[in-house]
């Protein structure tokens, strides 16, 4: 992807079980320092997705790398940015504790 140009990528998710799953995705950009230049325009992450038994879907992400990436001397040796996703089952009704509170 050329910095400043938009790109479209697809990630596959498959429910290999015999029951429906409602899941959610989070993303990660490596190397960490390049993350400030990664911009999602449209993404499936952080939204619950329902996958029926044995269903496989393509999930799109529309993004660009900020053109300032190419001007940052700290990014000069970075020629590969990896975008990865973790898709995990959402627990219906689960309340997560607030950090620092019991």
Key phrases:
elongated, mainly beta, three-stranded antiparallel sheet, 102 residues, Ctag/Cox11 (Pfam 04442)
Description:
The chain has 102 residues and is mainly β. The chain has one domain (5-89): Ctag/Cox11 (Ctag/Cox11 (Pfam 04442)). It contains no helices and 6 strands. It has strands spanning 6-14, 21-30, 38-43, 49-51, 56-65, 82-89. A 3-stranded antiparallel sheet has the order 1-5-3, with no helix packed on it. It has a 3-stranded antiparallel sheet with strand order 4-2-6, with no helix packed on it. The model has no long low-confidence stretch (mean pLDDT 86). Interacts with CNNM4/ACDP4. Interacts with RANBP2. Exerts its effect at some terminal stage of cytochrome c oxidase synthesis, probably by being involved in the insertion of the copper B into subunit I. It comes from Rhinopomastus cyanomelas.
Question: At the fourth CATH level, what is the homologous superfamily?
Answer: Ctag/Cox11
Count of spatially separate domains: 1
Radius of gyration: 17 Å
Shape: elongated
The helix fraction, in percent, is under 10%
- Report the mean per-residue pLDDT as an integer: 86
**What string, H for helix and E for strand, traces the elements in order?**
EEEEEE
Give the CATH topology: Ctag/Cox11 (Pfam 04442)
Question: What is shown here, in short?
Answer:
The protein has 102 residues and is mostly beta strands. 0% of the residues lie in helices and 45% in strands. The protein has a three-stranded antiparallel β-sheet, with no helix packed on it. It has a three-stranded antiparallel β-sheet with strand order 4-2-6, with no helix packed on it.
């Amino acid at each position: 992807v050329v910095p400043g140009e938009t790109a479209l990528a697809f990630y596959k998710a498959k429910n290999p079980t015999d029951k429906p799953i409602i899941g959610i995705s989070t993303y990660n950009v490596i190397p960490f320092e390049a993350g400030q230049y990664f911009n999602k325009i449209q993404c499936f992450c952080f939204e619950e997705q329902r996958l029926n038994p044995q269903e496989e879907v393509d999930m799109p992400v529309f993004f660009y790398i900020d053109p300032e990436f190419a001007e940052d001397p700290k990014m000069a040796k970075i020629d590969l940015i990896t975008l990865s996703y973790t898709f995990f089952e959402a627990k219906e009704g689960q309340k997560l504790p607030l950090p620092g509170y019991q």
